[in-house]
Amino acid sequence: MRRYLWAVPGLVCAALLVGVLGASAAPDQAIRGSLVIDKTYDVPAMDPGRAYSTVASLVGHGIYETLMTYKTRKVTKPEMGLAKSLVISNGGRTFTFKLRSGIRFSDGTPMTSADVVFSLRRVKNLKASPSFLLNNVVSVRAKGLSTVVLRTNEPMAALPAALTTPSLGILNSKVVKAQGGTDAADAAKTDKAEKFLNKTSAGSGPFVLESFSTTTQTVLRANKRYWGGSRPGYDRIIVRNVQASAQKVNVQAGATQIALDIASLNAAGLPARQFNVIHPIGLKIFYAFANADPKVSALTANPAFRKAVRKAIDYKGLAKLAGQGSKQTAGVIPSGLLGGLPASAAVTRDLAGAKASAQKAGAAGESVELWYPSDYTLQGVEFQPLAERLQANLREAGISITLKPTPTTVLFQSYGTAKIPLGLVWWAPDFLDPANYLTFAPGEKGGLRAGWPADRGVTAAANKAATAVTDRGPLFQKFQRELNAKSPFFPLISVPESIVSAKSVHGITPNALWVVDLAALRP
Amino acid sequence: MGGVRRLWRRTPLLRFLTRRVVASLLLGIGITLVAFCLTNLIPGDPAAANLSQQALTDPEIVAAFREKHGLDQPLPTQYVRYLRNLVSGDLGVSLQSGRPVLDDLHEYATATLEVAGAAMVISMVFGVLFGVVAALGRGGPIDQVLRVVTLVGVSVPIFWLALVAYYVIFYKLNLLPGSGRLDPIMIAPKQVTGLLTVDSVLAGDWAALRSASAHLILPALVLATPTIGLLTRFVRAAVLEVLADDYVRAARAKGLPERTVIVHHVLRAAAVPIVTLLGLTFSALLSGTVLVEAIFAWPGIGQYAYRGATTLDLPAVIGVSLFVAFVYVSLNLFVDLLYGVLDPRLRLK
Fold first, then answer.
1. The complex's ipTM?
2. Which of A89, A439, B18, B305 is the most buried (most CB within 10 A)?
3. CATH of B110-310, one of 3.30.70.260, 1.10.3720.10, 3.40.50.10420, 3.30.1240.10
4. φ, ψ for residue B347 (rounded to 5)?
5. CA atoms of A41 and A244, how far apart (whole Å)
6. Considering only CB atoms, which chain A residues are within 8 Å of B178?
7. Cβ of B171 and A32 within 8 Å?
8. With contact defined as beta carbons under 8 Å apart, do B312 and B96 qualify?
């Protein structure tokens, strides 16, 4: 035996060589009917009632269909999905949906109003992340086989937009119930269908779930019984969990056809003859805030200080720093959404005015800490350079700030208790309606986090926008103008995702919620 | 009873093993306590780290989350409950995956074991080979070259090496695949051991074996590079020390072939310190794969631990800590037992 010991290195070398020779060049998945997408994972589950993340939306939109949807990249008004009509009555408190005919689940079972009722009630009663979407919904009832009526406790014009969220996708109630699923009031404790829905799917969408892993990849297979007519362009779509740093190389090497986490700055360098770079409407915003509570900081609570900061920031410089597709947001609601302010309403830099306000606030000789996440990037944009740029901008106006990079979990703990004097954070809407931004109103969660409990004028504007059923756009614009004039918030820039794809992939329809419509992709 | 006592007195190995097992159990409890305290000392909220911003505004959702994961209980109660469950082999449910931590560990630890095991084999083979060659050619050109190469291997940051290897070998030369454990369009063989190469063989799926082996090489080589450097330096020193001993001179004087002298006399005598280092190195490889796993999208325990730490997923963090501790303790025990095999003098002690 021992005489063969010297052969071990040779064997290991041979094994390495075999591995190298066995490694074929990146296969052309497109030809073989499969498409590979790279995305950094944030998905703990595939159960739509529990999953609430970008990857869950990307995949879930292909598997589960919703009453309302968006068919183009425009997201100012939701369109009909499984519903063929919607009547809003009772001052915006009753929503009557009529279902399309001929809808079938992937196992061939026809969809009825009972499935819709079960699915929506289940989400509400699971008390999981997506449950808040139906917070104001007090009842979901079927009226015959094809009509569903939702009632809310107050006017909720945002409900149709909320119903586009893949988490509110409609499940095959018979299948899910057979697997322990329930829509009962105690579903949070008694529902047992999660395991089943993480392994397979029970939807009516153009894809079915073939396999799911929280860390490696999720595989979708075309639904052969899709009721909606045309079959997807790809038989299989594989969404892999790949770190953002490796995605550019993967797409360049042809190992993946679509990469979803390449930062705009990096995507800009890809040759246009080989790759498409598409930006959905950027709905995620960076914003800064100065705590309005004098107990936290007498300086940041001074209205003159807020004015100085607002005027001192070089917004266009920040947008340039963040890369292609980023732009200044005139208000907290980005321009692609209903109620977004036009670019002409954006704050412009006024250094002289900023210096005067800073002097009035007595900023000289005092330094304020600027908190921001040290372990998080928004669409690949780091907070550190933006914080440094803010520091430089404010220094020019005579305001001294100290940078305080902080882990996200710690930052949000302090932010939640309104202890941060000056912050640079982000906001991403949970669904595509301006109502998501009412949190910035005084006394609301966002307002309270910035130590801003009350302001009669802004609250009035927010209430009007919140309860309006028609002409909502101008009301949300008014709300934002009030915010820009009085609030401790400084909307900075919006950053879009970058969808980088090989030229061989066609039909990319970006969406701010589910990033890209998988069913529309064609080889 | 008396028989047990006699056996206890007469069997030093039993005494040794019992002491080690008891010490390991105490160590395990200590680890759970330290991980539990440290994770709770961080001024972060697991609900804030795992729920969406809007969901956090709903007290009912937050309360349901806390109740589901036992976070509504006082810390001592949470800890005692964790220990009670641990006794029955229940490591809790991960906040990030929603699955039992034990299931997660089975999936991720085997992925890490596969790449760390491959890296260990590569390290052992090349580290020992280079070390012996360097020692035999002491001061010569090969020794000098190996000295520089190993120094570079030890000094280069592993994440940088991984990025360069990824770019050059995968992207530029297209020699090996870059991300994952298997070609994404392939269907993985039925899971038996969790080691894809082994499972492919068991399933007779040779295409999967080729793909799994090819995916394994690059991360294993990167992971092995610093270990090869370390081992080479260590083996060289150990062999040089033994080469000067009288019995080696005697073996050579007897006219034994050089290969026999090196394998049977020199390496055997140098094996004890080398085995010690190997034990520690393998444990370090297991726990130090975070960066390599991230770059090569390798779904191992490093990525799981990182995500667990950033989402304040306490059951996952403690689960990984216990697993790594278990590997450390087991390997050290194995190494201690191996000493007796390698060096009969230690058995007598």
1. 0.71
2. B305
3. 1.10.3720.10
4. -65, -40
5. 10
6. 246, 249-250, 253, 255
7. no
8. no
